[in-house]
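Thread title: Can someone regenerate the structure for this chain?

I was given the following input by a collaborator and told the matching C-alpha cells would be attached. They weren't. Posting the sequence so someone can regenerate them.
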Amino acid sequence: MPIRPRLGVTRLEDRTTPVVSAFEIAPIVGSGVGFDGVVNFGENLNALDSTGVVLTDARYVLTAAHCVDSNGDKIADAENYFVRFAFTSGPVVLTVPRAAITIEPRWQGSNRIGEGGDIALMRLPAIAPGGTSIGFAPYAVTDELGKTVTFYGFGFAGTGTTGEASGNANGNAEVQRLAISGAGNLTLGFNGQSTTIAANITASALQAQLQAFTGLTTVNVFTVDSPGNPNNGAFELVFENVDTALFGGLNVPQVTLTPQGGFVGTAVATTLQDGNSGGVRHVGTAVVNQFGQSGETDIFGAGFPSVAGASVLGAGDSGGPAFIDGKIAGIASYGTDESRFGDSTFWARVSVLLPTFLNPLLAQKAAVVLDMTTQPIGNDGTPDSVRVFQEDYQIVVEVNGVRYLTVPVSTVSGITVRGSADGTSVNADGAYPFAVTATDATFSRTNAHNIAVGAPPAAGRGCR
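Best answer:
Regenerated them for you:
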C-alpha cells in the first residue's frame, strides 16, 4: 500500500487528529483525567489542527515535524503557532514563535515522510498551564516491538469499516449507524423528508437513495460485515463536509427508521460520532508489529486488525503521542490507505531520537517564565504564593506549595514570574547565577540556600 502523509501539505484543515476504532467510535477523553498535556495547536485560532504533547520539563511540546515544516527546509512554515490547553476551568492558549521551534535535522519534508526524522520540539513562552504535573517523560528503551501503545488525538473519528470521517473548514462530519434485521419495508426519514426502503436493501442502493432524497452527495454507506463484529449486517453512514447551517444546528440530523405495516424484525438508528465532536481527545490502542516500511529504525508501526479494541490513526494525524507505560514512545507520523481494517499507522520512534536530538536540546539553557495569568490557579480569585528554591542540582518552582517545575540548574538562563489579578507574592530563596525577576507581584529574597552551579557529581563521587 502506498505511503500517505497523515497531514495534507496544502490543506491546513486536514490537520485534525482522528483516532479510528474497530467497531465503535474511539472513546473521548475529557479534561482533568491525566491527559491535559495532550494539546492541539495551529497557525491561527480558527484552525487548531495539529497535536502535540507536553514534556515533564513543562517548557516544551513535542510534535511531528510535518505539523510545522511541510517542505523540509527545517524552518517552521508559520510565523507563530497557537497552542491550546483544554482545562475544565476553560481553555488557555500560548503563542509559540517560529524561532522557538527546532526540527530534527534528518527531516526531508512531507513528500518524503516515510524516510523518518518526523519530530520537532516547540519551546513554550512560559511554563505550561498546570506545570510539570501535565507533562510526560520520553520512553528511552528500544523494546517497542510487541508492546501495546495507547495513543491520543484531537478531531473527528470513525470505525474500521468506514475509515476516518473528516470535515473541512466549511463543513462537519458525522457517522451514523442503521441496524436492520427482518423482512418488509421501512420508512427512512431525514430532516423532515422520507422515503421507503426494503429491509434487505444493499449498501450501494441505500447510498444512492440517501443521496437522491437528501441532496447530500457526500454521504457514503458501508456494510459492517467484518468477522467477529457484533453489529454484523448493519450499515454505517458517513456524512462528510456537510454544511450544517442547512439544518440550523451544529450536527447532521439523525436518520430515522420507522417500520411500515407488515414489517417483521428490528430496526435501530444511532449516531456514533456527531458533527460537534471535533476538538476532543480520543484514545485508542495498537500493538507495535513493525518498523518503517523501508526498514527505518526511527519509525515503528502497527496494523489495524478486525478485532474488538483495535485502533488506528486516521488521515490528517498530526504529532499525537503514543504511550508505553505512561511515557512518550511515539509521535504520530503517517499511515497507509484509508484507516480501515488491514491498514497500518506509523510513529516517529522517540527512544531512537532521544539521545541524538531531544536530549541535547533539553540540556540547553532556556528561560523559566511563570505567567500566572495563563495558569488556571492564577485566575481563581485567590491570592497565590510562588517560591523559587534549590534542591540539590535542581531549580524548583512551587505555587501554593505545589511543585510546578523541577529542572536542572544547568538548563536555566533566568527566571521571571508574572503576577495575575488574583495577587501574587514571590520569594526567591538562595543566591542565583542568573537573574530572578517578578512583575505585577510582590517580591522578596531569602538566602537559606546557595545554588550549586554545574552538573551533579559523577556516580560514585561525592561533593568536596
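The first strand starts at residue 3 and ends at 5.
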